[in-house]
């Protein structure tokens, strides 16, 4: 039997400003994520735990920056977890009612497990984008709402829930809040605070400093000491290895970590500095990171397979320098074949050993071209000195967070339309011959990352995480 949408579909459609009636919706997969602190830094275990629920194409790593801000203000890392599931399938996959019920049941299990592990009767909840749909469904049951002390809704439909709440939205959010969504009076005359957080894109509505301050004040009854990520000398990095979008964990995989030369992107040592075998839930770490050091994380099977049924190509993930411990660093693999996200990505990249290719991901905000006519963009990304974020590649309306750069045989630095999505994903043609011995030099808004020219067919491609 198909799910009669009601609240579910109306909430989803309201994210896009569409009036709704009744119809059918969508499916599942997930896990919760948490980690022991295991560091010498002190933290306050009396702070109420926070559970984050991500949106479409998201994961618990979307909350990494805010988690670091919370720990900079005394929270323990073990007091912050995420609930992972296949939001893309639920939103677009034509799921049955059982898929929705299963996701809600697993969310409730995650809440109960967190309550048990922490000793708290209630926890605080944060939902982002489609995660606000999941959270609204969850809070619509009185027995569930009784387990939640506070709720922060980021880039959602603007509805008020029956618990103390802050609603975070912006006119810069072209996905959910354009124009800004205001949360009115809700169940039992409950109201939501609607702070002015400024002009931010869909992702930054969740990750910006203004939203952190509003969440912290709701959860603690006072303003934070700082909205900065405070640097640490004892930096421990851990996380999960999962598929992009569907969040399927990769278990029993060896992840090799190499410290690299910041100027060349080359490994400093022939053998890995660290190696981790992922757990059943895809967990890995912790890595004791050097302040100021840059790292390459090699996942042997994360890329697109050369042929159906074969293992995935290798992927080289570049990250760092780390300034503070994190337990929410995700290594990403290609989404399940046949899924909505895989249909956007798979089969559209030309892999060849004569060319190198990369994916640039900014999990903290959209990349918007400084030449976008809307006037809100200020970003520049140069590849070996040439601007890649043109107004056609990174317009504000795209809310770009992941940019694929590869040789598609067309004019360099023009948009590659074979990878196209209404939001978040884009591609640009680049010519990066592996015969050139020099690194690929990427400069994003003044911050430089140099990566090795891997042969994209046999050695795989590079995934570069931006922190600025």
Write structural notes for this entry.
This protein is 18% helix and 25% strand. It is of the alpha/beta class. It has three domains: 7-220, Alpha/Beta hydrolase fold, catalytic domain (Rossmann fold, 3-Layer(aba) Sandwich); 237-332, Sandwich (Immunoglobulin-like), CATH 2.60.40; 348-468, Immunoglobulin-like. The longest helix has 22 residues, at 97-118. It is globular, with a radius of gyration of 21 Å. It starts with 6 loop residues before the first helix and ends with a strand. The model is unreliable at 1-40 (pLDDT under 50).
Summarize the structure.
The chain is an alpha/beta fold.
CATH superfamily label of the largest domain: Alpha/Beta hydrolase fold, catalytic domain
Portion of residues in beta strands equals 15-25%
- DSSP, total strands: 22
Major sheet: order of its strands?
10-9-12-13-22-15-18-19
Strand-pairing-aware structural class: alpha/beta
Are there runs of 5+ residues with pLDDT below 50, and where?
1-40
Which radius of gyration do the C-alpha atoms yield? 21 Å
Main sheet overview: 8 strands, mixed
Tell me the count of domains. Answer: 3
Task: Return the average pLDDT rounded to an integer.
Answer: 90
CATH class of the largest domain: Alpha Beta
Tertiary shape: globular
CATH architecture of the largest domain: 3-Layer(aba) Sandwich
Cα separation of the termini = 46 Å
Question: CATH fold name of the largest domain, please?
Answer: Rossmann fold
Could you estimate the helical fraction of the residues in percent? Answer: 10-25%
